[in-house]
Amino acid sequence: MADLDALRTRWHDTLERARGTGAPDPAPYADDLLARWSEPQRRYHTTDHLAAVLDRVDVLEGYADDPDLVRLAAWFHDAVYLPDRSENEERSARLAERALPEAGLTPAATAEVARLVRLTVTHAPGDEDANGQVLCDADLAILAAPPAAYAAYAAAVREEYAFVPPDAFREGRAAVLRSLADLPRLFRTPYGEREWEGPARRNLAAELAGTAR
After folding, report:
1. CA-to-CA distance for 34 and 187, rounded, in angstroms?
2. Please, what is the Cα angle at 145 between 15 and 86, to 5 degrees?
């Protein structure tokens, strides 16, 4: 399980850099977000996933126009997560739009964070969208994990959708995998394309082969 105190520190430092002085205490916002990320229905979209995405943003920050806004988007991108609902990203973006102005962010910064959260619906940032490319690459980097870690990720996703019958899950999961495999590029940053594209393609192909059995 992720170190919650370390995550609180990361939130505090990011928010302090992104906002002006004299704003409210960051701690209640961190506590609310961490409570959301710790909800019992989560198996993959947990604090471990949050920490992993933040770690990958750190790796990719040199490609972003504003890495701290990307980090804030990472905090919010799955803050609302119910596996049986289709509007999680939109609800997460709206949460950011409510919380961040209160926490001291400017309207422009808040709008950028919310835009980035909504981008995780498609993971298809534009060619000039540096912030979006970093967030999407960080979120999708799990696809390039070593085989055992990728298998654990796939198993955790299945646990989140335990209410879906096996045949229906295989069909739906295969559709998601094919939509990813059909993308011209999974990763848009130079680092992501160099380090993660090949392993991710191999993992997707292997899982797709398994869903066909």
Report:
1. 28
2. 60
